[in-house]
């Protein structure tokens, strides 16, 4: 039996997502931020899905393991929470949820073309 790659073993709620670029070893320039994302991933990080809503529309950002350049856990001195910096080789696939259907449609946007690096801060996260 082949395991289904669409089944996610781990889920984190209320994740802070910061999209931007790292401008130095200690600085990250935030282009866009959202504080109530849902993150789903499996044991081997084959895909990471970020689910969020914006203006009453639900979106899914899908990151494949092939597009991840590196993942680093940062422990800023005197600051909480720690955060995870994920550097990508390319932009994630972006999907927009259709109201009449249960699935997501692929969304073509300038964000998809321009996005190269993102950062998730795991402050008020809940594991399910």
From TrEMBL:
Supply the Pfam families for this chain.
PH_RDR2 (PF24823)
Q: Where is the RDR1/2-like PH-like domain?
A: 17-98
Ordered alphabetically, the record's keywords are: Membrane, Nucleotidyltransferase, RNA-directed RNA polymerase, Transferase, Transmembrane, Transmembrane helix
Q: Which GO terms describe its molecular function?
A: RNA-directed RNA polymerase activity
Annotated transmembrane regions = 107-127
Give the protein name, as stated in the record: Putative RNA-dependent RNA polymerase 1
Source organism per UniProt: Prunus yedoensis var. nudiflora
